[in-house]
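If you are new to this repository, start here. Below is one unmodified record pulled from the training split, so you can see the exact layout before writing a loader.
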Amino acid sequence: MSIESHNHEHTAAAVDSQTDDQDTDDSYERAPRYFLPIIAAIPLATLALNLFLVNSETINYNVNAATDHSDRNDKVSTLVSEVTGIPLRVDCDNDVIDTIPLSSEDGQSYGVMGFVAPLHFMDVYLSVPVMTLREEICDTVLGDEEAPTYTSKESNEYYEYIDYAARYADSLSIVLHETEHIKQVRDEAEASCYAYQKLPDALVKLGMDEEDADKVARIALDEASDVMMDDYYSEECRPGGAYDIAESDLFLQSSETTVAQN
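And here is the target side for that same chain:
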């Protein structure tokens, strides 16, 4: 009932009850003041309810839209946490990564495959570090592409498997690189150097035999030697160098450095 109709009803009641005693008149005059707070509260409560429903619909929409991504994020987070030994959260989100401008060097453009923000607001909310990766990296690490099977290491199928595993190793190296940033390694060359030294062991943790792990890690390393920006290479990434952590003999160096050393 609106305030206007409520007052009209009381006005009609006052005309009909002019012969009533004074107590009735007093009770009528007090009635509008008594019900005014309740009447005023009705539209406010309605407004609050509408705002709640609108916000609830928005929240439900966002949650439903992100369900598939959330499942993938959870799986990747679990896998990466197990491999690296660091509890963390992985967000697979191309939309976020695509907001980062491309870098250029010698006429080449370089896109971002992943990043760890210096202070991610989700770090505080989730109480764990947050790593953001391209969705393609997440899909590869999860093994969405079925790995080729082989009967022997002399078969053609084995070489198809190695090709697949090398792509897997390349994606995993990005994960390991970003993990180094989570451990407060800020320098890109230092993080890359550590990542490739740790790559064979990480592949073994995921079930690959040591021989294959070493082989595909070297393939991934060779490919990275030709495609990374200069900031990702360092003279200290070598046997006995400052970045030698004795994890393996895989050291990321530019193809020019490798040629010079040979």
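Two things worth knowing about this chain: Confidence is low (pLDDT under 50) at residues 1-40, 47-67, 258-262. The longest strand covers residues 89-92.
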